[in-house]
Design brief:
Blueprint (H helix, E strand, L loop, with lengths): L1 E9 L5 E10 L4 E5 L6 H8 L7 E6 L2 E2 L8 H5 L2 E4 L11 H11 L4 H14 L15 H13 L5 E5 L7 H16 L3 E5 L3 H4 L5 E6 L2 E5 L1
Parallel strand pairs: 3-8, 3-9, 6-7, 7-8
Antiparallel strand pairs: 1-2, 1-4, 4-5, 9-10
Length: 219
């Protein structure tokens, strides 16, 4: 799905913050991305999401060389990569239903084409009773699940989740993890960036560990 070959990243004229990264995100795989604060996890996620291009090296996403992608090519590739941001990024004036449906509306789809799919997905993440609620009345865990549903509504090939359990209690963290595992079993590759060792110990999964800009991989 995604391949990094000898990738390095620096900001402006500063030193490299990531260097010599070579790894693959395989189809239908499940992995945790971890490491100490400041190790570069967010920068790596941004490159995976095509929001940031490397200073050197080769990144191939879904068979396409990122360096050769034009601006008009990016939306079609990004639609195949779902992202759950740490700060949720829900729109405050939209209901849960409207937030989850937003990626499909942006693509120009008619509501009659997607309404039932959106409702079913919202129920799947456990928010059926919050369908018409605004973000202001949702708890942190409910916002997180709404953000997950929005990331999934376009049926991505890859899901990237940035600290998805960072703002929830342990029981809800386990529930979110089960959602990610179910998604993975349905065929989506999953990358979860986290500091939560307890969460990682619940799953026998590949670990990508960043330290001082370099990556170690434990399969």
């Amino acid at each position: 799905m995604i391949r990094f070959e000898n990738v390095g990243l620096r900001y402006d004229m500063g030193p490299e913050v990531l260097r010599d990264l070579s790894f693959e995100i395989r189809r239908q795989s499940f992995q945790f991305l971890t490491g100490p604060s400041g190790a570069g996890k967010t920068s790596l996620l941004r490159m995976l999401f095509l929001a940031l291009r490397p200073t050197r090296g080769l990144i191939t996403v879904l068979g396409r060389d990122v360096a050769t992608l034009s601006r008009k090519d990016l939306p079609s590739i990004r639609r195949r990569i779902g992202v759950v941001f740490q700060d949720f990024r829900l729109l405050d004036h939209m209901t849960t239903y409207e937030n989850v449906a937003l990626p499909l509306r942006v693509r120009g789809k008619e509501e009659r084409e997607y309404r039932q799919d959106v409702v079913d997905l919202i129920k799947w993440v456990g928010l059926g009773e919050r369908l018409h609620a605004l973000p202001v009345v949702l708890s942190g865990g409910e916002k997180q699940r709404a953000a997950i549903a929005r990331a999934l509504i376009d049926q991505p090939d890859v899901l990237l989740a940035d600290e998805p359990t960072g703002n929830v209690d342990a029981p809800l963290a386990r529930r979110l993890l089960r959602l990610f595992l179910e998604l993975n079993r349905s065929g989506t590759a999953v990358v979860i960036a986290t500091h939560d060792l307890g969460l990682m110990e619940q799953v026998d999964a590949r670990r990508l560990i960043l330290s001082e800009g370099r990556l170690e991989i434990y399969d």
